[in-house]
Amino acid sequence: MHKILHTNLGRALFFTALGFGLFLASNRIDELRVYQGATLAMFVVAISSLILLTGYSGQVSLGHGAIMAIGAYAAALARIHWGLPVWLCFSAAVVVAAFAGAVLGTAAARLSGPYLAGTTLALAVGLPSIANQFHVLGGEQGLLFDIGQPPSWLGADFTSYKWYFWIGSSACLITLWWLQNILRSRYGRTWRAVRGNEVAAQLCGIHAGKSKTLAFSVSSGLAGLAGALLAMTISTVSPSAFPLSLSFTLLTGAVLSGITTLPGVIIGAVTLVATPEIADAISQRMANSESVTTNLPGLLVSALLILVVLFVPNGPVEQMRMFRVKARSHTKN
């Protein structure tokens, strides 16, 4: 028990120190990098939610972008109609998205494989039509999500982008710290048992349906938080901000990270953030073609995804871990 507490305390201190370092770094980099940092934090949270769902509980979602939208709309409505503080808006995003995930997860517990993937895909496809049917959601124009100016005690030079970065980084670090703890708990062990062999897990007394529903709820809550972070960085919530392609982008990022490996999540997030910039640099060298600028990011991500599936199917981090394990076994022999 003492060892576990010591480990948790060590992780908490590490993430606190990392957060302080990121806060200092935000004052030394330009606005574009600060904005990219906020976007990176959003992708880390979103991809982590998908890794928990697919990598640890064995459920496939092709509609996580829609669940992000649910959280974003909840945060915006809480801000507009009740004027709640920012942290309560994000809390509302988590709670509402988790509730939606629980409803969807109850049905998901009875589905598997392509049936579950198809159900979540239908949600992502139907979301724009649903949003346009309700005036309170702002229709195609969407809703404004203004979190306000940063506190005055941060100084006059502390811009809105730095405020976004600070909030996004804090949410990201808290999410990763919390996820590491829960995945090492009995809940994480239960999810892995159900993913590995559902029949064997049920014979051991595990209620597979409740386990899957809980995993879907937790994953949806984190996706809702990511949706609120995305709405914060673009200051609006609309159907066009959460297209179907967002769900596939998150799934690509999860595969690049290593779908069963949480520590590799930063790799997928960095790839998704850096790809448009790399594509823009390439297009400028190719006569600044608009068609190249539009299509190249997707082409680069697709090519990278194919290479990862072929050569490191478990993700770079898991591949390195397996390599170290093999190296140790050879050394002992």
From TrEMBL:
It holds the Pfam family BPD_transp_2. Keywords: Cell membrane, Membrane, Transmembrane, Transmembrane helix. Its main location: membrane. GO terms for molecular function: branched-chain amino acid transmembrane transporter activity. GO terms for cellular component: plasma membrane. The chain crosses the membrane at residues 12-29, 35-53, 60-78, 84-108, 115-134, 163-179, 214-234, 254-275, 296-313. It is a multi-pass membrane protein. This is Unannotated protein. PANTHER family: HIGH-AFFINITY BRANCHED-CHAIN AMINO ACID TRANSPORT SYSTEM PERMEASE, HIGH-AFFINITY BRANCHED-CHAIN AMINO ACID TRANSPORT SYSTEM PERMEASE PROTEIN LIVM. It is found in: Cell membrane. The keyword Transmembrane applies. The keyword Membrane applies. Coiled coil: none annotated.
